[in-house]
């Protein structure tokens, strides 16, 4: 069985597309955290020190399926950045958090 065939079989099941989309959103956040940390050239150990937590806690944050806005902000600020959250409603952008 090819990967394409397997993918079609999995996605043909009821509700599969919705579950995959939900997982994609969660994986994008996790990937974004790791990517931001690596771009800042900061190790998990160094970030843990900056956050006042253990390295395994940083690893858990990066694998988490549900990161709160507060935790996200602390993580990014420890990398020297800031978080901005915008909502787009009817084509109009509104800043929710800076």
Strand and helix map with partners:
Layout: H1 3-11, H2 16-39, H3 44-51, H4 55-63, H5 69-78, E1 85-89, E2 92-97
Antiparallel strand pairs: 1-2
Helix pairs in contact: 3-4
Low-confidence stretches: none
**pLDDT average, as an integer?**
87
**What is the gyration radius calculated from CA atoms?**
17 Å
Question: Mind summarizing the main beta sheet?
Answer: 2 strands, antiparallel
Oligomer: single chain
Count of strand segments: 2
Q: Give the number of helices.
A: 5
Class by alpha and beta content: mainly alpha
Helix content: 55-70%
Beta-strand level of the residues, as a percent range? 5-15%
What is the end-to-end distance? Answer: 49 Å
Q: What sort of overall outline do the alpha carbons produce when their principal axes are compared?
A: flat
The largest beta-sheet arranges its strands as 1-2
Strand and helix order: HHHHHEE
Structural summary, described in words:
There is one protein chain. The chain has 98 residues and is mainly α. Helices cover 61% and strands 11% of the residues. It is built from 5 helices and 2 strands. The chain has a two-stranded antiparallel ribbon with strand order 1-2. Helix 3 (44-51) packs across helix 4 (55-63). It is flat, with a radius of gyration of 17 Å. The protein starts with a helix and ends with a strand. The model has no long low-confidence stretch (mean pLDDT 87).
């Amino acid at each position: 069985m090819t990967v394409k065939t397997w993918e079609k079989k999995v996605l043909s099941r009821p509700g599969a597309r919705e579950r995959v989309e939900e997982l994609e959103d969660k994986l994008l956040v996790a990937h974004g955290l790791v990517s931001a940390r690596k771009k800042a050239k900061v190790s998990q150990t160094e970030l843990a020190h900056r956050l006042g937590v253990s390295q395994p806690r940083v690893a858990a944050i990066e694998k988490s399926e549900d990161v709160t806005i507060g935790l996200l902000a602390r993580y990014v600020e420890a990398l020297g950045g800031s978080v901005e959250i915008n909502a787009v409603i009817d084509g109009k952008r509104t800043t929710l958090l800076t």
